[in-house]
């Protein structure tokens, strides 16, 4: 089932999310619906608070990004990396690299806006997967960026928080229009008004 994605301005996007239990009866349906919602919105990542559920669950599919890029554009996929299709539950980023890079980011909750954001090049993350198996993995490049973006969502952080005050000021009117439903997307959204 495709779920509505909450828009910028919704309180749930600013909540620090709670951990989920392995035997949560609603977890499997939530994850299945989130994957369907992600693909219905033509996205590469989605966090549970974006579908109005404040739990520590997010999805990343950098495999589709890799497959859709021309070979010469794959420079931010490190040697041997062809992307991931992964569910992250109760994640915690354990390490960030000192090396950083800047690339453009957008967000399904903030349609029609994309801005450059500086992030660490690589991260090490601990989480449980969809089968609740403990994982500790290191990711770099685009995949690491996608994970950091979605991880921020479960911490109540938006990529806009990394912009300068001037950059944020220039977006003020557009963000108001998004929160009020004046700027929409081609997927179901839930607006604050």
Brief descriptors of the model:
Peptide deformylase, 193 residues, EC 3.5.1.88, alpha+beta, 4 helices, 5-stranded antiparallel β-sheet, Peptide Deformylase, hydrolase
Write the layout of secondary structure elements.
Elements: E1 5-6, H1 27-40, E2 45-47, E3 57-61, H2 63-68, E4 85-96, E5 100-107, E6 110-120, E7 122-128, E8 134-140, H3 141-154, H4 165-179, E9 189-190
Parallel strand pairs: 1-9
Antiparallel strand pairs: 2-3, 3-4, 4-7, 5-6, 7-8
Write up this protein:
By secondary structure, the protein is of the alpha+beta class. The chain has a single domain, classed as Peptide Deformylase. The chain contains 4 helices and 9 strands, in the order βαββαβββββααβ. It has a 5-stranded antiparallel β-sheet with strand order 2-3-4-7-8, with helices on both faces. Strands 1-9 form a two-stranded parallel ribbon. It has a two-stranded antiparallel ribbon with strand order 5-6. A hairpin with a 2-residue loop joins strand 5 and strand 6. The chain is globular, with a radius of gyration of 16 Å. The protein starts with a strand and ends with a strand. The mean pLDDT is 95.
């Amino acid at each position: 089932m495709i779920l509505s994605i909450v828009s910028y301005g919704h309180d749930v996007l600013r909540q620090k999310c709670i951990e989920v239990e392995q035997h949560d009866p609603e977890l499997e349906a939530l994850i299945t619906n989130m994957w369907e919602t992600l693909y219905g919105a033509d996205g590469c990542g989605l966090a549970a608070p974006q579908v109005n559920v404040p739990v520590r669950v997010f999805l990343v599919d950098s495999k589709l990004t890799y497959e859709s890029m021309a070979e010469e554009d794959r420079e931010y996929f490190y040697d041997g990396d062809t992307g991931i299709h992964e569910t992250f539950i109760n994640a915690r980023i354990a390490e960030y690299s000192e090396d950083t890079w800047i690339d453009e980011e957008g967000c399904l909750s903030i349609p029609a806006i994309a801005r450059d954001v500086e992030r660490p090049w690589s991260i090490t993350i601990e989480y449980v997967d969809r089968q609740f198996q403990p994982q500790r993995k290191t990711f770099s490049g685009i995949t690491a960026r996608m994970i950091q973006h979605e991880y921020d969502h479960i911490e109540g952080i938006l990529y806009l928080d990394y912009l300068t005050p001037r950059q944020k000021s220039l977006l003020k009117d557009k963000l108001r229009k998004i929160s009020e439903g004046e700027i929409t997307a081609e997927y179901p959204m839930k607006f604050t008004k």
